[in-house]
Design a protein that fits this description.
single chain, Aminopeptidase, 2 domains, 8-stranded mixed β-sheet
Length: about 375
């Protein structure tokens, strides 16, 4: 591992530089410029894709397959309050989901492969993908023909994760992260004076009934051995305390690991709203927005990985969060895994997307080592 240790300072510096400049999805211009400058210095070929994305590659000397590794690039609209020494210089934006670390690991892989003592046997593709947080940069890259253009056979992705202990790798076979979608429900009721409720149709009462009835879908319509989530996270209604609300709006999310369950959730929401609409004599409209498919880890890749990382792996329960890495997995075998960051003694306890989220730089080398191990046991590089 001496070879990897020699890359530590550069990997740490990459994170520092990238942490300073978080940018929203498809606007990662400074980020892309930095990444390209490092690839240029290493003499690694690359192309631009997905507006601000970058795909770099190294052709092997005797390739039998093409392995791809993917990192995300975008930051979040969060005011930074972490104790990381290099705070974001972009007001109201922060790398609160660890994408600065992901990119540093990927640049570490590029630096490793560019070393003269490393013989690259198979074709290696490194994907710097924009807009993971939304609206889904992976889908754009896939639709632009990334997989076919580079003849990619399998793909790997990393995410730092504070629900897994520092020093451990968390993953599971099959469904690991949920398919997710959003919905908006607009209720057109009838306003009236609060002292004369019989002359109106109360949007708040109807909205409350909608919330109560929709909660029965998961408990009474979905097979109990198939996990699902239906959450109403926001309600907006009313103008004054003494006025019957003439309209109401509900905003929610649905999540499931099984696509059939996901579409069943949507179907039952729509059916229930038709009945509620008729019972109150009002107009109810619902708009669904399907987002990311489920992340489903390939069984063969999982078995290979856990065999070669047995001492550090923790098989975790599937997570109801989502990830657009799933778009690659719909086309080719893929493996997604978490690099644990939780360390109570050091204060690394805050969740993803929190303004205080941070992690120890040492986990960057942990992630890089997993990349290295994959390439070694795949016989894709020789040292």
């Amino acid at each position: 591992m001496k070879l990897l240790e020699g890359l530590k300072s550069e990997v740490f510096n990459d994170r520092k530089a990238l942490h300073l400049i978080p940018e929203p999805g498809f606007e990662e211009h400074k980020t892309a410029t930095y990444i390209m400058s490092q690839l240029d210095a290493l003499g690694i070929s690359y192309e631009r894709t997905g507006q601000t994305g970058i795909v770099a590659w190294i052709h092997g000397v005797a390739p039998t397959k093409t392995l791809a590794f993917r990192t995300d690039m975008d930051g979040l609209s969060v005011n930074e309050e972490s104790d990381y020494p290099e705070h974001s210089v972009h007001p109201s934006f922060m790398h609160a989901c660890g994408h600065d670390g992901h990119m540093a690991m990927m640049l570490g892989l590029a630096r490793l492969l560019a070393r003269p003592e490393v013989k690259v046997i198979d074709n290696i593709v490194m994907i710097f993908q924009p807009a993971e947080e939304g609206p889904g940069g992976a889908q754009v890259l896939v639709e632009e023909g990334l997989i076919e253009r580079h003849k990619i056979d399998e793909i790997y992705g990393i995410h730092v994760f504070p629900a897994v202990m520092e020093g451990k790798v968390g993953l599971c076979p099959g469904p690991m992260m949920a398919m997710t979608g959003e919905f908006d429900i607009d209720i057109q009721a009838k306003s009236a004076h609060g002292a004369m409720p019989h002359t109106g149709t109360d949007g708040i009462v109807i909205a409350s009934d909608v919330v109560t009835k929709l909660q029965s879908i998961v408990s009474r319509n979905i097979n109990p051995i198939k996990p699902a989530v239906l959450t109403i996270g926001r309600m907006e209604a009313g103008e004054r305390r003494n006025v019957i609300a003439g309209k109401a709006r509900l905003e929610g999310t649905i999540r499931a690991f099984d696509k059939e369950v996901f579409y069943q959730l949507k179907s039952r929401i729509a059916e229930m709203l038709v009945g509620i609409e008729a019972s109150y004599g009002v107009k109810i409209e619902v708009v669904f927005r399907d987002m990311y498919p489920p992340v489903v880890n390939d069984q063969r890749l999982f078995n290979e990985f856990i065999t070669h990382h047995i001492d550090e792996c923790v098989v975790i329960e599937p997570q109801m969060i989502s990830e657009d890495f799933s778009y690659y997995q719909e086309r080719i075998p893929g493996l997604f895994y978490f690099i644990g960051t939780y360390n109570e003694e050091k204060g690394y306890v805050y969740p993803l997307h929190n303004s205080r989220f941070n992690f120890d730089d040492s986990i960057l080398m942990h992630g890089l080592r997993t990349y290295y191990n994959i390439l070694i046991y795949k016989d894709s590089i020789q040292i």
